[in-house]
Amino acid sequence: MTVSTKSGGSQRLFIGIPLNTEQRARIASLEDSLRSVLHAVRWVTPENLHVTLKFLGQCETSSVPQLVEALAEGARRMPAELTIGGVGGFPSQGSARIIWVGAADPTGSIQEAFKVIERGAKKCGVEKERKPYRPHITIGRSRKAPAAVPDDSSAMCPVERMPVEEVALYSSELSSGPPVYKIIGRAPVGAP
């Protein structure tokens, strides 16, 4: 388990599973294909792609070590691999504000890991999610008007296995361009 913090203040944070170079390239290629169909979407840059576990929001920097402990406990319950593939949207495919690639774990371990991380985050003052957790990789956001994700989009992203090696705590700095994500804590999957 590793952690790096800056002193004082607060940071915008989230917890996720990093993708490897091959997975990022595959999804970047999918984004390129979808650009011709979904025009008013801000696409996530390849270096920012990850499987979302929990968005934490603004958190006191002093809570980072405790959050890293929670993600380490969750990482111990994480599956060694996920399947990723298919394309969809939140809140719905036909009226999407978020465009995503699906992530699944037939063992249910990722759900257990999420519950552990959520309990740890609650101790740091982060509110519990109101909706059920659905593992996914956010690939785009439609800010102005909802996008209609074409039904045949999933054929562009067939399901494949993805090894899960670590869980990471990210800081997110917003700017006029794409946000800058930086890993500030990490824990290997399955480590005692």
Q: Would you give an account of this structure?
A:
- This protein has 192 residues and is of the alpha+beta class.
- The chain has a single domain, classed as Cyclic phosphodiesterase (Cyclic Phosphodiesterase, Chain: A, Alpha-Beta Complex), CATH 3.90.1140.10.
- It is 22% helix and 37% strand.
- The protein has three helices and ten strands.
- The protein has helices at 21-35, 64-75, 109-123; strands at 2-3, 10-18, 42-43, 50-60, 81-91, 96-104, 136-141, 160-163, 166-173, 180-188.
- It has a five-stranded antiparallel β-sheet, with helices on one face. A five-stranded antiparallel β-sheet has the order 3-7-6-5-8, with helices on one face.
- A hairpin with a 6-residue loop joins strand 9 and strand 10 (180-188).
- Helix 2 (64-75) packs antiparallel against helix 3 (109-123).
- The longest helix is centred in the N-terminal third of the chain and has 15 residues, at 21-35.
- The mean pLDDT is 91.
Pick out its properties.
192 residues, alpha+beta, five-stranded antiparallel sheet, 37% strand
Strand order of the largest sheet: 1-10-9-2-4
Summarize the main sheet. 5 strands, antiparallel
Q: How helical, in percent, are the residues?
A: 10-25%
CATH topology-level fold name:
Cyclic Phosphodiesterase, Chain: A
Gross CATH architecture = Alpha-Beta Complex
Average the pLDDT over all residues and give the rounded result.
91
- Report low-confidence residues grouped into runs of 5 or more: none
Strand content: 35-45%
How many helices? 3
**How would you describe the oligomerization state of the chains in this entry?**
single chain
The computed structural class is alpha+beta
Form type: globular
Radius of gyration: 16 Å
CATH homology superfamily name: Cyclic phosphodiesterase
Report the span from N to C terminus: 10 Å
In CATH's first tier, which class applies?
Alpha Beta
Structurally, the number of domains stands at 1
Number of strands: 10
